[in-house]
Amino acid sequence: ELPPEDKIKIASDFILHAPPGEFNEVFNDVRVLLNNDNLLKEGAAGAFAKYNQEQFTPATLEGSTDQVLVTAHGLQADGSYLDPRSKQTFKYDHLRKEASGVQPAHTDESKESLRAAFDRAAKEYAEDHYPQGVSTVYAIGDEIVICLEDHKFQPKYFWNGRWRSEWKVDTTSGDVKGLLKVHVHFYEDGNVQLQSKKDVVKKVAAVDEDSVAKIIKAIADAENEYQTAISENYNAMSDTSFKALRRALPITRSKLDWTKIVNYKLGKELQSRS
């Protein structure tokens, strides 16, 4: 039998690779396989937190109308998370997906004006371009970090998907670096996943409040280009690669006449009854 540490490593790997919107299903399956709730919750707690941070899981704080993303950028020393927009910290239950223990946060005010300008522009962009888009903007050292997330979970129709993008704007050098990720899972009569990511590098002359709109416009252009490229790629694949996975005609090289087959079957059934 495997030692407990190996079991936890395997369980954590399953958790970290759970498709978007399917954490609970994977957790329940792993729970059955491990058959030890205490070992799972204590040993894999780090995987639960890492999963939500990597997925940019949206959280709703009591008394707030805006959601905040759970990310590694917002993780505080005491294990709580920062909501830069409301200037609050909160505890997050990574299993129940619930925020609690909201407290006022002490933030660095030296770049707050610039951070807030990016926050307003990113929020407007996310709401305009994504059906349920959520944005969170941090000021970390010399960087403004913009995190964007949107998802659509349709288990009724056997598919779930999530978009994530992270942009780091260096306020001293003008470097703008983005990481875009798409993860979609289709599982009706099969199991197909699309996982794609792209690194983007841009340069701006200056990073100040006057340049915020221009930088957000560059981000929008890059994300639109990436989305278009994915759509075009998979449209092309449906006409080439996917068609190669099955025969265009049966091995007889002629199309089946289903009407004749049905009539033949009915005729045999009538004969057997007479």
Task: Write up this protein.
The protein has helices at 4-16, 23-34, 37-43, 45-54, 112-129, 212-239, 258-273, and strands at residues 57-60, 67-70, 81-83, 88-93, 98-104, 134-140, 143-154, 159-170, 175-186, 192-203. The protein starts with a helix and ends with a helix. The strands form 3 sheets. Strands 6-7-8-9-10 form a 5-stranded antiparallel beta sheet. Strands 3-4-5 form a 3-stranded antiparallel beta sheet, with no helix packed on it. The longest helix has 28 residues, at 212-239. With 274 residues, it is of the alpha+beta class.
Describe the structure concisely.
The chain is α+β, with helices and mostly antiparallel strands and 274 residues long. The chain has helices at residues 4-16, 23-34, 37-43, 45-54, 112-129, 212-239, 258-273, and strands at residues 57-60, 67-70, 81-83, 88-93, 98-104, 134-140, 143-154, 159-170, 175-186, 192-203. α1 runs parallel beside α4 (45-54) and α5 runs parallel beside α6 (212-239).
